[in-house]
Design goal:
By secondary structure, this protein is α/β, with parallel strands linked by helices. It has 6 helices and 7 strands. The longest helix is centred in the N-terminal third of the chain and has 15 residues. It starts with a strand and ends in a 6-residue tail after the last helix.
Length: about 190
């Protein structure tokens, strides 16, 4: 069987390469407006929507994923501009928030969907630090306006759970799920 990553995210490609020798990338445009109210349901529904949007060929397993940052009931997706990113980071400052990644695997025979949650603690962020970060960092394509593997690491004081989940793909859970689909990794 061949693995197809249904995501254009360079971070997901890098993470998947850690466990799979070969895969292809095929994405389709999907509507990310969804009615599910909580983060866990939303990321799972979006991951499945992405995996179902790509046309499957014989012998393929499609892998869709979606990541969101949540602070209580507030869902922080990708910011629409600098002001939105600043708003998100002010909310996260000094707080523990959750990062959820939904993953969907789909073959001709079956589908599997799951979610991983990781708790992330941020240090308090001064206004000066915030503005410097916004001047330096690429934040528009990041849920919660930060990337833990990039400049956003300066704010993180503690992680509880899977670190790769915060980047965009819970590597160990994906590896285990692929084995259940009869695929071996590296």
């Amino acid at each position: 069987m061949k693995i197809v990553l249904c995501s254009a995210s360079p971070r997901r490609k890098e993470l998947l390469r850690r466990i799979v020798s070969e895969f292809t990338v095929r994405t389709a445009q999907t509507d990310e407006n969804i009615q599910e109210a909580d983060c866990e349901q939303r990321v799972q529904a979006l991951a499945l929507r992405k995996a179902r949007a790509v046309v499957m060929q014989a012998g393929e397993v499609l892998l869709g994923a979606d990541t969101l940052v949540c602070l209580g009931t507030e869902i922080l997706g990708k910011p629409c501009d600098r002001a939105d990113a600043a708003r998100m980071l002010r909310l996260l400052s000094g707080q523990v928030h959750q990062v959820y990644t939904g993953v969907a695997l789909r073959s001709a025979e079956r589908e599997a969907v799951f979610c991983e949650q990781t708790d992330v603690q941020f240090a308090p962020i001064s206004e000066e630090e915030l503005q410097r970060y916004l001047d330096e960092a690429a934040f528009l394509d990041k849920a919660g306006a930060y990337a833990i593997q990039e400049e956003g690491a300066r704010f993180v004081t503690r992680i509880e759970g899977c670190p790769s989940n915060v980047v965009g793909l819970p590597v160990q859970r994906v590896y285990a799920a692929l084995k259940e689909f009869g695929l071996s990794g590296k």
